[in-house]
């Protein structure tokens, strides 16, 4: 036969740069008659370098060497890495000899780019030190991020005013005035708190009150418990003081953990008052915002109160630098609205009388009246009481996150082009000059990571920019940025909307946009992750990026899927063919050398289906030296992709899958039916629209810019310039909308767009545009549409829907579901992405779980023949079973654990070969949908039942994560009084959950470590949970107040995707009665069951009219053809040979293990009696002689080697020739072309993980000193001098992540190993 690659792993090397033929870049929505799918298939098997994943290449705090650079890059090439984003960080690592931006550093950088060019690796560089933002030692306070500061002075009964206005706080001794504004004092403004305060006591002890009243945000006092559970700060006045609001300035707390970055741990305060200093009553409670460097106020309003004693109480230790009680009212949530922190409606909203509101017409600008010494001379228009504010700006003090020691400096003013130009001139231009020979070759440009610089709320040019963009003067309204209410609450809120819009636009245009313009002038690209805690409008920023980026973390701890959904929307809406993601970033608890390709694959594939098409691995740490393994780390962060990982040299197996996948996913256009207009408000991030989408329908989020500049209407479809189309536009639920936006929506609907609304906007959000105008235009569009009696209305050629389910709207258009599936396991989790490439329909389908799934899919495709392109193996073939029904293609798929395939539909459909396969009368596969999932499947199983299974956790489990099966809303499914249980587990224990309503509660915990494969039984005995671990009772809980049902086979929900079990486990076995202790012990003693992942028959359809089949088991097979004919195939010559016994295992030198051991029977190395074997990390070699009788070599014989369970990667050699690299289940290799009659020498190289040896070394004498936060105090001399490691320990790491008590990871070849002698037939 011509094709024999049933299981052939195509090992693709990474040699040289492969250019992408122009035809593969086609993104036209119409068929390209010149599109060469034959060449596409060749490139799929051996993809171009442009399809390779990239890495975050982290240079750690000046520990850089040329030798290490070369070795790093050469390792990347062997792995199949196509590019590197180079960062320079510290993250707790001691400083090395190469200072950031020194002449030596520039030399190292030039050398790195040159070496990358030699190897065909592309490079980009983060635009400044650290892993976020832009800045450095050269940034002056004037050019840095700016914040508003002010002082207040009250004058009484004066007209001729001569007064000194104190200068506001100047951080780093830098300050500039912006305005001096005066307004007639409010009736309640009868003196400042500081002038009427007698004393301040902390925990009953008087302090120097000037510390909290001097306006200096750097002076501070510590508020913490002193022998009680709370601490207090008492303000004592000379007489009763009236207040309506409180503002507190804090200084950030030291993070609880070093890896926790700049995050603060804000306290909660209670404000109490007293008339006598003894009996206090509560008047307000409030939380405080998380802090970065900016001096961010915390505030709360309350009904007016007059008292002599005010007391602030908290249970949380904190630093306080300023406190102010205000007699006048303040706007609720003003710190967030004025961009000191995230926008917020926080704060109480007491009634405010008109006399307590500032009239903007009466605000007087006195800026010109202030001399350089702060003296104000002014003749007021009338004699009276005046409140005068001296307003200016100073630096926020923010520095680039995690900068190397030599890169310490300020972040630039992101609203200012001049500031960015200043940074470029002092740093990036020097790099561009140095790297000019590589521009247009392998040096691509600069990147900005996710925003971790906090906010700023001022820039020197803000008044002018504000007026130009809003057409009114900021001056009277700037008083609102101090919390005051100007013209009224509604008007003040509208000003803040304008302010936020202006500042978001300045950031988008003057930072991201200007970066992009400058890079393009140099012939470079600009990539960024446009989200975070700044003044961001992510969708607007996206238009400026050559490659929009996102992030996701292993175990889904940080970095939710939303950033990738956003990046995909940006890519689709703005025609960006590559959408990249910082991938597999790891937390220390869950990523301490515990990750491996199989453990990562399903998560990576899931993000492909969200629209990501380039993975950028986090993290490849620069290893400056050749001794000391695993060596350098990015502090505690993973995942560890660098050259010192145990599986670096085996990574290419998985990466070949990534290369093939990314090659296809970077072509053509994504199919999405709905675009979701998020409104005029600037957003950091996008709303999650997936829960709104009907089953099998995808959508993108669009912003205001795309609505105006990218939309056109053709034949009722929304069409973008690059050919992307949508069937309808759904609008966010908006109370306010800009006048020109309503006008634009009317234009689009009039031309034929379908618009789905969720409410009826009633006003304009800012000062521009009257509410009456908005209402008039909206009324014209809506007509009699009210969402109740009238739910659909025609407008021009288009329609508007309100309160009609999206599924019904799509039916009317008509638009069918694009992708639907049913499954044998009703809790199967299957993801998909649909693309149009060169006139073909391409679906990527992935299995989220590490178990085999049989599914039946229904695709919105008619008349095209499906081909299966397997990105794991490179194999391509025509699907052997498919049929078109009612205009939809239907076909079954068998997906391996964490498996994925492409379905390519490009040729005119011919008949499917078969419709059903049976073995001994049992159906193996048929083209028929499975039953729909039933959430109430176990309605009759309650209170008394058992669930038993074996589990192998890969890592630590966070609360509510790593679920073996999920709980669900019991009362919604079964009725009142019912709950559903769930079970989670990790190396740190087992956790039982119950859920009656919307929230699951953890009700039972076993918090002992789990090592390797572990037997679990969850019993419910009369509603009381019991846990058994390895045959022994481990924990018992309380009787549930609910009737409890098992959460097994709960239909997959999107909320569960981030919390599936991290590891392997057997199928849970449910008993509708309670297992006895003897039954449980018997199950445990029987041991771990063998894997059952292989189908009895494997089919391959080369498309020639002949079907090839490999039969692995004997039996009577029947294949039913579409013509109605039945082919009967009695298979009698299949054979399995058990190879589990008698193996010799060899270990490399200097690994702590003996050179060789013999195993009578395969078992995990962690169960071996030898300490060195038990704690071995690296690659060991299993050897066995295999005698095969000539009688086995009959015609049509195929030989498969099934390794059973492998921890974690296997490389198979037979008779001195490499057969295959096996990196995921099933660990099966086709050895037909390698096996000989008679004696055969079988070698299997098994690579495990670093954790076991790191744990083992913790039993040996300490060699280095680490802090409580686990970072090393000093790099050892032998390490920095690149000398052999002394001492008894085998390993060395700059981060101390593991202890001797930690559980070991399964290791080696576990088996059982079988030789499968199969029969091959052509049909």
From TrEMBL:
<dbReference type="GO" id="GO:0004553">
    <property type="term" value="F:hydrolase activity, hydrolyzing O-glycosyl compounds"/>
</dbReference>
<keyword id="KW-0732">Signal</keyword>
<keyword id="KW-0378">Hydrolase</keyword>
<dbReference type="Pfam" id="PF17132">
    <property type="entry name" value="Glyco_hydro_106"/>
</dbReference>
<dbReference type="Pfam" id="PF13385">
    <property type="entry name" value="Laminin_G_3"/>
</dbReference>
<dbReference type="InterPro" id="IPR013320">
    <property type="entry name" value="ConA-like_dom_sf"/>
</dbReference>
<protein>
    <submittedName>
        <fullName>Glycosyl hydrolase</fullName>
    </submittedName>
</protein>
<dbReference type="InterPro" id="IPR008979">
    <property type="entry name" value="Galactose-bd-like_sf"/>
</dbReference>
<dbReference type="GO" id="GO:0005975">
    <property type="term" value="P:carbohydrate metabolic process"/>
</dbReference>
């Amino acid at each position: 036969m011509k094709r024999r690659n049933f299981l052939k792993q195509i090992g693709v090397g990474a040699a040289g740069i492969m250019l992408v033929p122009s035809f593969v870049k086609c993104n036209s929505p119409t068929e390209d008659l010149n599109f060469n799918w034959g060449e596409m298939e060749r490139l799929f098997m051996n993809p171009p370098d442009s399809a390779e994943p990239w890495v975050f290449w982290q240079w750690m705090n000046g520990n850089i060497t040329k030798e290490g650079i070369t070795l790093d890059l050469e390792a990347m090439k062997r792995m199949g890495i196509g590019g590197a984003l180079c960062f320079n960080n510290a993250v707790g690592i001691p400083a090395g000899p190469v200072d950031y931006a020194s002449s030596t550093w520039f030399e190292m950088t030039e050398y790195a780019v040159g070496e990358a060019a030699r190897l065909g690796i592309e490079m980009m560089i983060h635009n400044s030190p650290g892993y976020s933002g832009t800045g450095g030692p050269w940034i002056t306070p004037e050019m840095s991020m700016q914040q508003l500061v002010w002082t207040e002075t009250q004058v009484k009964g004066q007209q001729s005013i001569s007064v000194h206005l104190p200068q506001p706080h100047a951080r780093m001794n830098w300050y500039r005035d912006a305005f001096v504004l005066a307004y007639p004092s409010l009736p309640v403004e009868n003196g400042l708190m500081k002038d009427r305060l007698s004393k301040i006591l902390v925990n009953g002890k008087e302090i120097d009150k000037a510390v909290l009243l001097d306006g200096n945000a750097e002076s501070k006092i510590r508020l913490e418990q002193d022998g009680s559970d709370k601490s207090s700060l008492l303000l004592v006045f000379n007489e009763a003081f009236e207040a309506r609001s409180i503002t507190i300035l804090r200084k950030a707390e030291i993070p609880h953990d070093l890896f926790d970055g700049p995050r603060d741990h804000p306290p909660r305060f209670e404000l109490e008052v007293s008339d006598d200093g003894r009996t206090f009553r509560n008047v307000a409670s409030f939380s405080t915002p998380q802090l970065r460097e900016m001096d961010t106020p915390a505030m709360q309003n309350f009904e007016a109160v007059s008292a002599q004693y005010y007391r602030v109480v908290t249970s949380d230790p904190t630093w306080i630098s300023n406190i102010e009680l205000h007699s006048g009212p303040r706007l609720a949530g003003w710190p967030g609205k004025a961009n000191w922190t995230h926008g917020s409606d926080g704060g109480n909203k007491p009634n405010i009388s008109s006399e307590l509101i500032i009239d903007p017409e009466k605000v007087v600008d006195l800026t010109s009246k202030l001399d350089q010494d702060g003296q104000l001379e002014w003749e007021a228009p009338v004699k009276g009481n005046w409140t005068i504010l001296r307003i200016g700006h100073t630096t926020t003090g923010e520095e680039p996150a995690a900068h190397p020691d030599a890169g310490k400096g300020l972040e630039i003013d992101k609203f200012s082009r001049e500031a960015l130009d200043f940074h470029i001139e002092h740093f990036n231009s020097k790099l561009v000059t140095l790297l000019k020979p590589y521009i247009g070759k392998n040096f691509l440009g600069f990147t900005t990571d996710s925003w971790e610089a906090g906010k700023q709320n001022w820039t020197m040019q803000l008044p002018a920019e504000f007026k130009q963009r809003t057409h009114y003067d900021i001056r009277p309204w700037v008083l609102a940025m101090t919390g005051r209410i100007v013209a009224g609450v509604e008007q003040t809120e509208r000003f803040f909307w304008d302010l936020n819009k202006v500042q978001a636009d300045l950031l988008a245009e003057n930072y991201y946009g200007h970066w992009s313009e400058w890079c393009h002038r140099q012939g470079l690209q600009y990539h960024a992750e446009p989200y975070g805690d700044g003044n961001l409008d992510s969708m607007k920023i996206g238009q400026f990026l050559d490659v929009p980026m996102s992030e996701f973390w292993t175990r889904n701890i940080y970095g939710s899927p939303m950033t990738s959904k956003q990046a995909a929307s940006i890519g689709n809406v703005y025609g960006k063919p590559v959408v990249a993601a910082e991938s597999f970033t790891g937390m220390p608890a869950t990523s301490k050398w515990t990750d491996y390709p199989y453990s990562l694959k399903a998560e990576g594939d899931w993000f492909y289906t969200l629209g990501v098409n380039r993975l950028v691995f986090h993290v490849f740490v620069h290893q400056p030296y050749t001794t000391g393994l695993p060596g350098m780390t990015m502090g505690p962060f993973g995942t560890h992709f660098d050259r010192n990982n145990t599986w670096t040299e085996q990574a290419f197996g998985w990466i070949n899958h990534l290369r093939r996948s990314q090659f296809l996913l970077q072509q053509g256009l994504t199919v999405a039916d709905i675009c979701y207009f998020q409104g005029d408000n600037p957003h950091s991030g996008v709303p999650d629209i997936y829960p709104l989408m009907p089953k099998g329908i995808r959508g993108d989020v669009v912003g205001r810019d795309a609505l105006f500049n990218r939309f056109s209407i053709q034949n009722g479809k929304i069409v973008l310039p690059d050919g992307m189309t949508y069937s309808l536009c759904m609008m966010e639920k908006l109370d306010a909308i800009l006048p020109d936006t309503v006008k634009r929506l009317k234009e689009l609907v009039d031309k034929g767009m379908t618009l789905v609304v969720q409410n009826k906007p009633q006003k304009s959000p800012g000062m521009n545009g009257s509410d009456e105008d908005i209402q008039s235009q909206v009324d014209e569009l809506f007509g009699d549409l009210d969402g109740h009696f009238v739910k659909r209305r025609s407008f021009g050629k288009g329609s508007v829907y309100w309160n009609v389910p999206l599924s019904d709207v799509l039916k009317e258009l008509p638009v069918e579901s694009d992708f639907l599936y049913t499954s044998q396991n009703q809790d199967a989790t299957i993801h998909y992405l649909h693309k149009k490439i060169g006139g073909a329909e391409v679906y990527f389908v992935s299995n989220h779980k590490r178990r085999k799934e049989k599914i039946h899919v229904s695709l919105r495709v008619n008349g095209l023949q499906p081909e299966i392109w397997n990105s794991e193996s490179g194999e391509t073939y025509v699907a052997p079973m498919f049929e078109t029904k009612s205009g939809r293609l239907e076909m079954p798929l068998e997906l391996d654990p964490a498996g994925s395939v492409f379905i390519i539909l490009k040729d005119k459909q011919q008949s499917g070969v078969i419709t059903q396969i049976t073995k001994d009368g049992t159906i193996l596969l048929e083209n028929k949908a499975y039953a729909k999932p039933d959430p109430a499947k176990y309605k009759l199983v309650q209170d008394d039942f058992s669930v038993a299974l074996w589990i192998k956790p890969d890592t630590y489990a966070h609360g509510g994560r790593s679920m073996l099966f999920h709980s669900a809303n019991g009362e919604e499914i079964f009725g009142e009084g019912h709950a559903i249980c769930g079970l989670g587990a990790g190396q740190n224990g087992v956790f039982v959950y119950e859920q009656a309503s919307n929230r699951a509660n953890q009700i039972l915990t076993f918090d002992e470590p789990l090592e390797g494969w572990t037997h679990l039984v969850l019993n419910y005995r009369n509603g009381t949970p019991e846990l058994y671990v390895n045959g022994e009772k481990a924990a018992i809980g309380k009787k549930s107040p609910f009737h409890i049902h098992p959460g097994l086979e709960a239909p997959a929900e999107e909320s569960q995707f981030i919390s599936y079990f991290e590891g392997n486990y057997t199928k849970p076995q449910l008993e509708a009665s309670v297992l006895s202790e003897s039954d449980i012990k018997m199950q445990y003693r029987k041991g771990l069951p063998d894997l059952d992942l292989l189908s009895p028959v494997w089919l391959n359809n080369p498309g020639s009219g002949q079907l090839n089949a490999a039969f692995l088991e004997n039996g009577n097979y029947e294949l039913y053809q579409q013509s109605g004919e039945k082919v009967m195939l009695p298979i009698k010559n299949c054979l399995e040979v058990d190879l589990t016994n008698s193996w010799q295992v060899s270990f490399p030198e200097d690994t702590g293990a003996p050179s060789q051991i013999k195993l009578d029977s395969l078992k995990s190395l962690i169960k071996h009696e030898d300490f060195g074997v038990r704690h071995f990390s690296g690659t060991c070699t299993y050897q066995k002689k295999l005698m095969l009788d000539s009688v086995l070599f009959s015609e049509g014989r195929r030989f498969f080697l099934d390794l059973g369970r492998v921890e974690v990667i296997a490389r198979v050699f037979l008779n001195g020739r490499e057969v295959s690299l096996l990196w995921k289940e099933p660990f099966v290799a086709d050895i037909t072309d390698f096996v000989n009659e008679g004696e055969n020498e079988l070698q299997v190289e098994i690579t495990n993980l670093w954790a076991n040896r790191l744990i083992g070394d913790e039993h040996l004498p300490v060699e280095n000193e680490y802090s409580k936060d686990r970072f090393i105090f000093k790099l050892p001399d032998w390490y920095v001098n690149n000398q052999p490691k002394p001492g008894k320990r085998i390993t060395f790491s700059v981060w101390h992540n593991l202890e001797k008590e930690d559980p070991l990871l399964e290791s080696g070849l576990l088996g059982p190993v079988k030789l499968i002698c199969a029969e091959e037939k052509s049909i």
